[in-house]
Amino acid sequence: MSKVCQITGKKASVGNNVSHSKRRTKRKFEVNLHKKKFYWVEQDMWIELLVSAKALRTINKIGLNAALKRAEKEGNLDFRNINIISL
User: Fold this and answer.
1) CA-based nearest residue to 50, from 80, 9, 85
2) Deepest of 8, 51, 62, 83, by most Cβ within 10 A of its Cβ?
3) Are 65 and 40 in contact (CB under 8 A)?
4) C-alpha angle 8-84-68 in degrees, rounded to nearest 5
5) pTM
6) Which residue, among 7, 15, 51, has the nearest Cα to 32 in the 3D structure?
7) Close Cβ partners of 18 (under 8 Å, ≥ 6 residues apart)
8) How far apart are CA 76 and CA 1, in angstroms?
9) What is the DSSP string of 29-51?
10) pLDDT in tens, 67-85
11) Cβ pair 82, 76 in contact under 8 A
12) Is the separation of the CB atoms in 49 and 38 below 8 Å?
């Protein structure tokens, strides 16, 4: 599984390390991803998503169902890739 947020679609970006003498070498800025379990009330099930810190704030603000619908509309999420947890 690649390092991409399932809600926002954020992925690693590229930049430069800049030394004191201003020499530049390439580096990668990784995304702050977390594997998180959510209870999806509308489907009455637990799911596990790989989400960024910004996506956690989005889910808290608009709700899980709305965030999932928005992510699918933007093309960031495929419902076949959601990990369903049976507890």
Assistant:
1) 9
2) 51
3) yes
4) 30
5) 0.84
6) 51
7) 24
8) 14
9) E---EEEEEEEETTTTEEEEEEE
10) 999 999 999 998 888 899 8
11) no
12) yes
